[in-house]
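sanity check this record:

:::
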Amino acid sequence: MNYAIIAAGDGTRFQAEGADLPKQMMPVDGHPMLGRILYQLTRHNARSISVIINDRQPETLRYLQNWSSEEHLYQLGLPESFRLRFVVKSTSSSMHSLDALREILPPGKFCLTTVDTVFDDESFSRLISTWQNMDPRDADGLFAVTPFVDDEKPLYVDVINEVSGFGDIANFYDIPLPGKTLPVSGGIYCLDTASAYPVLERCLSEGQSKIRNFQRALIQSGRRIRSFRFPKILDIDHISDVPKAEDFLRGF
């Protein structure tokens, strides 16, 4: 699987709360936040990982350069064919970051997440296996959803025809629907460059900037996006979220 990570934010909330490191370099479960997600993805049949970081954090760039060294990749036991690619570019939004990733992302199926998304290995393994084996005629994307609401601005997902945690996404909402309990977007998106990027181009040409509007545009364009339910997904939005994420990762 080809993976992509958006790690281009400035971490302004972390700075306001007194962090002395870029958010991407904040320790989480023994590793910098970016390193933790990199190590996790390499455990799931990673062919490549493409990362975007901003151009205002030399510490993060040095970390990626060291992480991608031949010696380090050999120590991890990764195949010689594995590639860690990164683009250093400050962008105005997450949607623009996804667009910038096109420079380095191999064509075909990929899985995108953000640097601060925290999820369990077992659910993620099933998600990736499902996406790898899914016939392209059956879906243009497979998105993680969760009933656990941990986001300051959750995106509610209207899932239909759900069986055993697997369904179809009918729409996305910024507020809950009255009388209906909806899961929320988990921030893990399995897509294909061929069907996803034309929609992204249209969104950008219309002045859109938020990933959630890109998700809506996929549905509106007729793309079939399936849902895959995780029991719990966390976002590290504040320094106080780090201990909660560590407890979750350690099974507490």
Observations:
- Residues 121-133 form the longest helix (13 residues).
- The chain has a mean pLDDT of 95.
- The first strand starts at residue 2 and ends at 7.
- Residues 157 and 192 are 20 Å apart (CA to CA).
